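From the methods appendix. Each design record in this collection lists the tokenized structure first, followed by the designed amino acid sequence. Records were kept in a plain field format so they could be parsed without special tools. The example shown here is representative of the layout used throughout.

RECORD:
FOLD TOKENS (85 positions):
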């Protein structure tokens, strides 16, 4: 499981990229978004890319800020599919 930090900016995306890349496989990768207070474009791009991989990702416990940012960016249909609360 990958746990997103509270501030998901460019540096957080760069730091998480190797872990996410190494963890992707044929099964969905769980991503815990409970702590997210702010998310930027770089992290959104990383998550969309991971979601489109073979196994994809499944977002768990999305915070209100995370969900609102995805809706604003028009990515909720990609990243919130199959969300677990």
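DESIGN:
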């Amino acid at each position: 499981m990958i746990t997103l930090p509270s501030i998901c900016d460019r540096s957080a995306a760069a730091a998480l990229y190797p872990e996410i890349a190494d963890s992707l496989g044929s099964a969905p990768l769980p991503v815990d978004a409970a702590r997210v207070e702010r998310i930027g474009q770089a992290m959104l791009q990383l998550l969309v890319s991971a979601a489109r991989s073979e196994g994809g990702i499944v977002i768990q416990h999305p915070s209100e800020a995370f969900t609102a940012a995805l809706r604003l960016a028009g990515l909720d249909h990609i990243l919130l599919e199959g969300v677990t609360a």
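APPENDIX NOTE: The beta strands are 2-3, 7-8, 29-32, 38-39, 57-60.
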